[in-house]
Amino acid sequence: MGPVEAREWNARSWPGTRVTLQAAARALALVVLVAAIPGSGRDTEAGTPAGRPSPPPTRADLAALRRRVALLESGLALARSRKPYLVVDAESRRLRYELLGTSLRDVPAREIDIDGLRRSGEGGVPGPLSLAGIVTLKEKEKDPRLSPLTPEQIEGGAADENVADALPPEAPADYTLTFKQPVVVRIEGIPEKKSVVSRAFSWWPGSWSRGEDNREAIVLRLTIHLDETTAREVYRSLLPGERLVVVPPPGFLLPDAGQEAPRSIRPGRPTKPPAPQPGLPPAGVPFRIPPPVAETPFEGAAPAADGAAAPPADAAPAPTPPPADPPPSS
Amino acid sequence: MSRMPAAPPPSRAVRLRRAGFVSGTLLLVLVLAALVYRMHLLRLETPPPDTTPLTSAEQREYRALQQREESLSSQISALRPAATYIVIDTGRNLLSLYKNGEKVHEAVCSTGSGRALSDPVRRRLWVFDTPRGEFSIRAKYPNPVWVKPDWAFLEEGEPIPRDLAARLAPTELGAYAMDLGDGYLIHGTLYERALGLSITHGCVRLGDRDLETVYKTVRIGTPVYIF
Fold this sequence. Notes:
The complex is a heterodimer of chains A (330) and B (227). Helix content of chain A is 23%, strand content 19%. By secondary structure, chain A is α+β, with helices and mostly antiparallel strands. In chain A, the strands form two sheets. Chain A has a nine-stranded mixed β-sheet with strand order 3-2-1-10-6-7-8-9-4, sandwiched between helices. A two-stranded antiparallel ribbon of chain A has the order 5-11. In chain A, strand 7 and strand 8 (183-190) form a beta hairpin. The radius of gyration of chain A is 32 Å and the shape is globular. Chain B contains four helices and 14 strands. Chains A and B meet through helix 3, strand 3, helix 4 and helix 7 of A and helix 2, strand 4, strand 5, strand 6 and strand 7 of B.
């Protein structure tokens, strides 16, 4: 299409205008020329315009990359275990619940204090275990499972006839987590509404409690300050045996606290989809019917309705054998 | 030339007041010093980033780490759940239903209390935790009937019945139940006011409407992730 045709097209579309496509093309060429002048215009988001070589990586970039790779190595091993784990990231001051590499919950921490860190640069290239350490939870302070109730205790406190339905005690907001490794995590829940005086002295109880455990044996000690409600939620969600990944802040390394190597974590088996059921289950049939009590010893294990965990093998009688008429769930 | 009379010595009360003022001020200074020590001196300060260019050996390490990072990221991505799945947060007592990575429904639920019950007579122990990890819907039941286990009677201080009929509780589990395996269920409840509390014996309880929504959305084999 020549300029004449363009002018005609313009004249037909907007009568009276003198702007032609040729002029527009000239303006466009000028804009391109100006943009091509070095230093003009704005850089892209990455800081390097297209075609320009990126600045060479520095030691800080290398250190950051080492940290990311160490965290990914730990994350992959824990994702393959198919169990949930908690990442304590001191750099971003966040706790992250993850499972199968997916972040399930992100919890901001008010503050994370760590005692026992080393400065990076001491002792050459840092190992991956000093950049992201995996530790296994051994015990929660005030854990109700440590003091099981007995039927007598329940009966003894049964002034209220609904005692069996009584609410369990509220999860604590301040507690200590101990690990299989010489690591201690102290969670301190900060009340949402707090007076100036109590805020000023909030560090006091934490300082005293530090003397309770065997201070010399502990290599790494974390104090995580969370909102009170969040601290209780974290308490409820953590079970002994679960793993934490501790990520130190930049410029610091974890000490050798016996953290687990990612390769030592056993991969879990993916859950198999159940076999298709033959036909529809008859309505109203219990999901699991124990055999008649007369056929099994009285102390036979109860059917596992409402999800009670199976009792320990040494203390428990044999589980109830499946009924003759298989339930729809089997 | 007149001389001013000597001032009388301060009374005992005045001296006590002065001493109190001085010691109070000292105490305040000490507390402030302790606060400053706690809040500033003990804090770790992040060192400034090292902007030194990499040596050739470090550059090789950098490139190798970049490749490793890509490889690890893709391996983790391959594990991530897709399609329809359920996430249960035992800390907040929340059940979330996801479709293609997007949350389509959220419901308040109740999960395990974490309490333990022992039966010293028969040396049995139950821990009422909701299990954590990856599960799947193994079966779906309309109108489920609960067969009360021994602990339900022990908790209520009742004798354990020998008769099966005495164990059946036809309305306890609500209109639907979904089996997660090992006796753990997602089911309804008669006590909707207690939803949001960690109060169950390990199962996951939902309100009637949420239970119906979840029941009708999931299929046998739908993954359930509990943390």
